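Example for tutorial group B:
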C-alpha cells in the first residue's frame, strides 16, 4: 500500500519515526511529508534515511512531477501523526499553505489523523469543532491518549503509541487494507476491560484491569481486515478507531451482550476481566457507617461463567463463533502452578484457545508489557507452551497470528 505520512510540528514528532518503521517493515511504501515546523523536532535527513525517499515540505520542489497533486492522488492512505491543533485547523479550513495541506486537499483515499497537543488545546471548542468537521467529511480522527505531556502537566492530548496508530490507521484504510487482511470478511467480537458490580449508588466491586490487552487485540483484528465489535467494560484506554462499541458495566450486562453478538460473530475473544462475584443485594442508598461501630455484612453471589456458557451455547445451537478464545489471569500458590491452573481452566471452559498470563499487583494489569502462553486442547500431553513476552500490541499480533493459523486448520465439528 502507498502511504503518505504527514508529520506535524509538535514534540511528539519523534514517535512518528517508529510509526514509519512499522509501516515499512509491514511492506508498505511510505512517503513522508513533514510540515516546516516539524523539521525543528526531526530533520528531513532522518525521514529520508528511514523511508528511502526524498522528502520536502514545499510545493515548489519536484514541480515537474506536480508533486502537490500527485501525492494525494496516488496515496492509498494518508496518516497525519502528530496532528497538532494548528494542523487540524488548517485541514478543517481547507487551507493549502504547504505540501502537506495541499496533499490533504488532493486526497482520494482514506485520511487518518492522530492528534497530539496540550489538554487545553484539545478541549478547546475551536479544536473540537475542527475535529467534528473533519469527521463529518469522512476523515478518521483518533482520540488522543491520556498521560504525561510536555512539562509537568498531564491529561488527554498525548500522542498514542506508534503501534496503536499503526493498527488503527490500517483499519481506516479498509477496504484497501482489508482486502489483504487475513481476517477480511470475518467478524471479531472482543470483550475488554474490567466489570464493575455495584454495592450501592456510589460504590462497586471491581478489579485492576485497564482494558489495554483487549483494545490491542481489537486493533490487531482491525489491521487484519476484520469487522470488529468491542464489548467494553471499564477501560483506561481509548476505543480503537473503526471498532463498533458496545458499552457495558456489570458481568450480567456483558453476558447479555456476548450472547446477542454470538450469532453474527466468527471469532469471539474474551479478554475482559469479569468479576467472579457480585453483591447479593444492591443497596438503594449509600451504605453508612453505623453509630454502634458494627461492620456491614455483604453477601456475594457467583456471576455466570460467560466463557463456558458461550462454548455450551455453540454446541447446543450448532452455530456461533468458529473460534472461541478465552483469557485466564492466574496466580500460582502452594498447591498448583499458574500453568497447571490454566490447563484445568481450559478443560473446564471448553474453549478453543486459552491465553494464559500470571497476574499480581505489579504484573499485567495496567502495564504496557506482558508475557503469555497460549493453550489448546490439541496440545500434546506433557508439553509446555512457549512463553511469549512483549508489549500488549505485540502480544495481540501474536494472538491474531495463532487465531489465523487455527482458522486455516480443520476445526472440530459443532
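The residue assignment follows.
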Amino acid at each position: 500500500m502507498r502511504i503518505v505520512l504527514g508529520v506535524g510540528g509538535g514534540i511528539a514528532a519523534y514517535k512518528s519515526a517508529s510509526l514509519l518503521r512499522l509501516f515499512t517493515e509491514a511492506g508498505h511504501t511510505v512517503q513522508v511529508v513533514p510540515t516546516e515546523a516539524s523539521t525543528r523536532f526531526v530533520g528531513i535527513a532522518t525521514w529520508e534515511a528511514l523511508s528511502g525517499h526524498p522528502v520536502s515540505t514545499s510545493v515548489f520542489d519536484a514541480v515537474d512531477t506536480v508533486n502537490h497533486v500527485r501525492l494525494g492522488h496516488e496515496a492509498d492512505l494518508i496518516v497525519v501523526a502528530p496532528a497538532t491543533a494548528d494542523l487540524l485547523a488548517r485541514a478543517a479550513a481547507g487551507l493549502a499553505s504547504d505540501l502537506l495541506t495541499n496533499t490533504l486537499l488532493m486526497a482520494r483515499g482514506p485520511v487518518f489523523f492522530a492528534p497530539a497537543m496540550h489538554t487545553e488545546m484539545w478541549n478547546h471548542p475551536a479544536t473540537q469543532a475542527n475535529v467534528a468537521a473533519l469527521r463529518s467529511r469522512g476523515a478518521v480522527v483518533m482520540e488522543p491518549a491520556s498521560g504525561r505531556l510536555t512539562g509537568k502537566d498531564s491529561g488527554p492530548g498525548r500522542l498514542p503509541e506508534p503501534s496503536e496508530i499503526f493498527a488503527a490507521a490500517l483499519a481506516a484504510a479498509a477496504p484497501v487494507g482489508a482486502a489483504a487482511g487475513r481476517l477480511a470478511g470475518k467478524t471479531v467480537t472482543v470483550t475488554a476491560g474490567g466489570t464493575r458490580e455495584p454495592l450501592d449508588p456510589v460504590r462497586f466491586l471491581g478489579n485492576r484491569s485497564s482494558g489495554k490487552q483487549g483494545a490491542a487485540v481489537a486493533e490487531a483484528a482491525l489491521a487484519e481486515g476484520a469487522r470488529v465489535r468491542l464489548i467494553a467494560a471499564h477501560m483506561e484506554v481509548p476505543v480503537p478507531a473503526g471498532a463498533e462499541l458496545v458499552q457495558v458495566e456489570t458481568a450480567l450486562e456483558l453476558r447479555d451482550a456476548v450472547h446477542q453478538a454470538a450469532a453474527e460473530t466468527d471469532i469471539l475473544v474474551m479478554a475482559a476481566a469479569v468479576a467472579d462475584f457480585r453483591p447479593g443485594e444492591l443497596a438503594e442508598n449509600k451504605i453508612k457507617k453505623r453509630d454502634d461501630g458494627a461492620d456491614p455484612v455483604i453477601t456475594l453471589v457467583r456471576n455466570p461463567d460467560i466463557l463456558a456458557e458461550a462454548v455450551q451455547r455453540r454446541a447446543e445451537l450448532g452455530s456461533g463463533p468458529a473460534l472461541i478464545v478465552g483469557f485466564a489471569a492466574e496466580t500460582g500458590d502452594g498447591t498448583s502452578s499458574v500453568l497447571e491452573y490454566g490447563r484445568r481452566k481450559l478443560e473446564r471452559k471448553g474453549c478453543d484457545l486459552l491465553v494464559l498470563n500470571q497476574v499480581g499487583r505489579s504484573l499485567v494489569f495496567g502495564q504496557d508489557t506482558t508475557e503469555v502462553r497460549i493453550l489448546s486442547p490439541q496440545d500434546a500431553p506433557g508439553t509446555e507452551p512457549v512463553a511469549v513476552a512483549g508489549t500488549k500490541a505485540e502480544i495481540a499480533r501474536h494472538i491474531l497470528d495463532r487465531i489465523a493459523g487455527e482458522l486455516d486448520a480443520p476445526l472440530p465439528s459443532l
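The chain has two domains: 2-172, 182-408. Compare this with the pattern of hydrophobic and polar residues in the output above.
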